[in-house]
């Protein structure tokens, strides 16, 4: 049982965005996807969620080709947290989170659905926002709603595209903890693109490092985020270490 990309290739506008990606996300695992701007992280996430059709290779979810899964089965398999919310037609925060339950609507009563939405809103501290229009929230508040919607979706895998980029320090840690706890408690597999290397090292089980459409290294953060590799991929000389068990990556100089 995995969400698996095999020999994935993607071309857009005459450019190769993904070039032979092999990656498997297991249940109960938090895998962080790192890499410079334009490395292909969002493109990979879009292919894994079926939003973009790869030009070559396959994506399988628990042994089934993604391209053949009916829409509702796909929504029960994979939840996606986009970088931005898109057009919401004036939906409230509670309505946005309720959208996460769309694929379950034939299997639960309206009362059950409301109870789930209420508990997810509470979990993310979003009760005070429940009736406010999503479009009228700040960028960080919107990001918390999009994570909450994905949690409400109760899928087996979750793909998060820079879910903490607009969050303040406390809400960053809070959101990463929530994802970590979800992975540990519910056994979902989560793949998260993120730019904060230290947070990735701290919360992830494995790191996948991308550069120019390719996977450069996959594994434990200590093996992947070495000073040599950070220099090679990001062009930055960095100190890497741990303080009281918390990893840090301290950029020293641009090379
Ligand atoms: N629709 C598109 N058509 C053509 N090229 C695209 C398209 N979307 C993205 N790209 C290009 O594909 C490359 C990979 O983009 P992608 O968004 O996957 O990178 P990323 O690693 O997520 O970057 P970032 O860290 O900046 O979010 C970039 O060079 C980008 O300009």
TrEMBL record:
<keyword id="KW-0067">ATP-binding</keyword>
<dbReference type="InterPro" id="IPR003439">
    <property type="entry name" value="ABC_transporter-like_ATP-bd"/>
</dbReference>
<dbReference type="InterPro" id="IPR017871">
    <property type="entry name" value="ABC_transporter-like_CS"/>
</dbReference>
<keyword id="KW-1278">Translocase</keyword>
<dbReference type="InterPro" id="IPR003593">
    <property type="entry name" value="AAA+_ATPase"/>
</dbReference>
<keyword id="KW-0813">Transport</keyword>
<dbReference type="InterPro" id="IPR027417">
    <property type="entry name" value="P-loop_NTPase"/>
</dbReference>
<dbReference type="GO" id="GO:0016887">
    <property type="term" value="F:ATP hydrolysis activity"/>
</dbReference>
<comment type="function">
    <text>Part of the ABC transporter complex HmuTUV involved in hemin import. Responsible for energy coupling to the transport system.</text>
</comment>
<dbReference type="GO" id="GO:0005524">
    <property type="term" value="F:ATP binding"/>
</dbReference>
<comment type="similarity">
    <text>Belongs to the ABC transporter superfamily.</text>
</comment>
<keyword id="KW-0547">Nucleotide-binding</keyword>
<protein>
    <submittedName>
        <fullName>Iron complex transport system ATP-binding protein</fullName>
    </submittedName>
</protein>
<feature type="domain" description="ABC transporter">
    <location>
        <begin position="3"/>
        <end position="237"/>
    </location>
</feature>
<dbReference type="Pfam" id="PF00005">
    <property type="entry name" value="ABC_tran"/>
</dbReference>
């Amino acid at each position: 049982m995995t969400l698996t990309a095999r020999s994935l290739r993607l071309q857009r506008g005459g450019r190769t965005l993904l070039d032979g990606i092999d990656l498997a996300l297991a249940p109960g695992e938090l895998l962080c996807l790192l890499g410079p701007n334009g490395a292909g992280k969002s493109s990979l996430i879009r292919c894994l969620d079926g939003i973009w059709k790869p030009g070559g290779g396959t994506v399988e979810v628990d042994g089934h080709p993604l391209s053949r899964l009916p829409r509702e089965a796909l929504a029960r398999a994979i939840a996606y947290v986009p970088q931005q919310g898109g057009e919401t037609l004036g939906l409230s925060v509670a309505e946005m989170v309720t959208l996460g339950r769309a694929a379950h609507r034939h299997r639960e009563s309206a009362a059950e659905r409301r109870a789930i939405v209420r508990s997810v809103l509470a979990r993310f501290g979003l009760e005070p926002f429940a009736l406010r229009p999503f479009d009228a929230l700040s960028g960080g508040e919107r990001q918390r709603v999009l994570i909450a919607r994905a949690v409400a979706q109760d899928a087996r895998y979750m793909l998060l595209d820079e879910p903490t980029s607009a969050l303040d320090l406390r809400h960053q840690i809070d959101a990463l903890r929530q994802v970590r706890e979800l992975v540990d408690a519910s056994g979902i597999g989560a793949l998260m693109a993120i730019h904060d290397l230290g947070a990735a090292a701290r919360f992830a089980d494995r790191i996948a490092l991308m550069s120019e459409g390719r996977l450069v290294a996959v594994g434990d953060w200590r093996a992947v985020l070495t000073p040599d590799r950070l220099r090679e991929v990001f062009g930055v000389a960095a100190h890497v270490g741990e303080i009281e068990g918390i990893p840090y990556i301290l950029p020293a100089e641009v090379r």
